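Many introductory courses stop at the sequence. We go one step further.
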Amino acid sequence: MRLPIRYKGLGLRESVDRCHTQYIGALAQSLPDLINRTDGNTVIPGRLNIPSLVAMLGEGSFTNSTSTTPWEHLLNTNMVGSNNNIAHGLRHAWTHLQTKFQDVATPAQLTTNRLPTHTRCIKSRLLL
């Protein structure tokens, strides 16, 4: 069942193989919508714009016009409690994905510092 389709398998992957990607995807999809953000001159209200979330994610972190690294505040702020767990989980998942992609990268990609396409895509979507 785990064999790729090209080898007459079903191409199914175990949840342990997908969990890090799913965690990053869930954060990227859900966290920006929680706090207020702007798109040009339009303020888009957050779904749960409370002071603790704004402090964790950073005011204006997901503003389309000015933010070049939306996760920087979350990753670089030393906060205690569950906020720190989210940043730790994001770092752990990202490190795991980088390691997995380095395992399948060709020597030329590793020596020229070229990441596989999937890693570039994820990195550009997250702007890490």
